[in-house]
Amino acid sequence: MPRSRMLEYDGAAWHEDCFLCSGCRKPIGSEAFVPDNRRFYCLACYEQQVAPRCSHCRKALTKGGLTYRGEVWHRDCFLCCGCGSALAGQTFTSQGERPYCVRCFSSLYAKKCAACNTPITGFGDGKYVSFEERQWHQPCFKCSRCSVSLIGSGFFPDRDQILCADCNSDD
């Protein structure tokens, strides 16, 4: 067509007036656009009609973001359900469908070590020993009298104590 500029994208060519937004049908021209499954959208139509919506704020997610349990989130909207701190880029866990930072999860849900009474989170040195209703961090699983490690050896429960074979035979 005379006096019409040719536009090229991804190996295809269009007349300037034929390269239209799939949403509003206006010519895109030299404006920014977003390709989506062989369709092209001006930025406004992409945000209004096509872009995924953040599960928290419901605004269009146009760059970055993250996916958690099949839902998309802005990085700043993905927050701990306990304290409200941002979880993007840090270790977190969940209780049911709700995400928590390690600190909140530990204080709200984690079992406490029978020796040191701090949470057993499963993060870092997360190995632990469980016996009946009690749990211990591996480094805390020691004889209550002589403090020898009981990992890999027999032990004897004595009310709220755990004893190695030597200390148990001293009784």
Give a quick rundown of the structure:
Keywords: LIM domain, Metal-binding, Repeat, Zinc, Zinc-finger. This is Four and a half LIM domains 3. This protein has 171 residues and is of the alpha+beta class.
Structure description:
With 171 residues, this protein is an alpha+beta fold. It folds into 3 domains: 6-50, Cysteine Rich Protein, CATH 2.10.110; 66-108, Cysteine Rich Protein (Ribbon); 112-169, Cysteine Rich Protein (Ribbon). The chain is 12% helix and 28% strand. A two-stranded antiparallel sheet has the order 1-2. The protein has a two-stranded antiparallel sheet with strand order 3-4. A two-stranded antiparallel ribbon has the order 5-6. The N and C termini lie far apart (103 Å). The model has no long low-confidence stretch (mean pLDDT 87).
* Fraction of residues in H or I helices: 10-25%
The CATH class label of the largest domain is Mainly Beta
The fold-level CATH name of the largest domain is Cysteine Rich Protein
Total domains: 3
Please, what is the CATH homologous superfamily of the largest domain?
A: Cysteine Rich Protein
Broad structural category: alpha+beta
Roughly how many Å apart are the termini?
103 Å
Mean pLDDT: 87
Order of strands in the sheet with the most strands? 1-2
